[in-house]
Design brief:
six-stranded mixed β-sheet; 3 domains; Udp-n-acetylmuramoylalanyl-d-glutamate--2,6- Diaminopimelate Ligase, Chain: A, domain 1
Amino acid sequence: MTATFTLAELVEATQARAINDLPFSDSRFSISTDSRHVTAEQVFLPLVGERFDGHDFLTALAEKGGRLAFCETRYYEAHPTAKEAFNNVLLLLVEDTLDALQDLARFHRKRSSAKIIGLTGSSGKSTMKEYLFHVFQQSHQTQATFGNHNNDIGVAQTLLSIEADTEIAIVEMGMRGLGQIRRLTKMAEPDLGLLINIGPAHIELLGTLENTAIAKCELVEGVKSTLVSNGDDPYLEARLAELPLTHLTHLRYQLKDAQNKVALPDGTFRFTVDGVDFRSPLPGEHQVSNLLGVITVANAMGLATQAVADALASFTSHSGRFERVNLDNGHTLINDAYNANPTSMKASLDAFFASSLEANQARVLILGSMKELGDASPAYHAELVESLKAYSDLRAVVFIGEEWASLALPEASLIYSDTEQFLQTLQAFQVQALNALDAKETIAYFLKGSRFHALESLIPSLESYKTSSQTLENTPL
């Protein structure tokens, strides 16, 4: 993490109590949460999880050159025999080290001149973040959340990584319940907040879509000047109508803002905004909505619409997000296995079936179940299975996960309990749904499921799957 602090700043930011006053008040320290690589120029901040406690590594810190560490008061008082081992380490006692990490992130954010864009939504957060990062980095020193590090720790690490010359930082915010977005937005204090959509991704913990909207709209509480929201989302609209927004400039984007919209053979869309031509880099009409959000944010931050179009012309998707892979065995694959919920699953399936294929290609779906849906899980999975009937050129489906087991699945389908079971069947070339295809056909695979299933691990075996006539068993489905 880039940010550095003097000892006085560490104490000021966290209200820590120093133990063992050591003489290095003029030094500057960066933050490390990994005791294995702490140097003399870093302060170790031990985090606590369900199955680990970073405090257990404090006593070995001095041996590795560490001179400074945070420590929770409860741990220090509960380990009197270990205090001698701390003699050569200056300890900063705090009540909660995660709070301390976030206090430091907030301190660093306040002294930075970077404009912060905070975004959240039930689905599409990472894609929107990548769109925005690609657009802004063409003309500004820009940073963004790495990967999907969008929780309490990840947002703090993103803020602590802001460089001195950073002009724009894009901070993705995730959640698992009420109060979490509030905590993140108060830490980041976004200059601009972006609300993308409300869907059932968090239904297990929040119970209703209305509650999800309440939780997501906590973002508003920390936004300093501008709020951008998806005006086509009824749950966002209803919740925002209940909140005081007079202190903000509130901008909405809607699909109707895209003029001259035309669907193209590959599933992408061509459209215009204010006379400027756009083509969505990724397929699906939901990507048009996403791009309208990007345009609205960019305009609010001072970028011209034409500059946005020029930047998006060179955008490429990241691994696991509708990534097209040409396999060595002649088949193709759409890898959208990064994650899934009912909204994103349906949108991606629509995009896949809207895309044209090469001649003699068979569409094969490999669908992992959707996690964290609680009591609503059977209904959402049943709805997804029912929706498959609308796709006329579907040749076979492989379902992975116990959530599909009790449902009336399509005739041309197989079900496996987990990814490993299916992988073993693949490696033995015994997948009936594939062996029953015409040997002259190539396959267009579509992979999507919750992160739990790690469906991308199947790709090497799909690439090596034998489809010559001598391996085809023509087994009835």
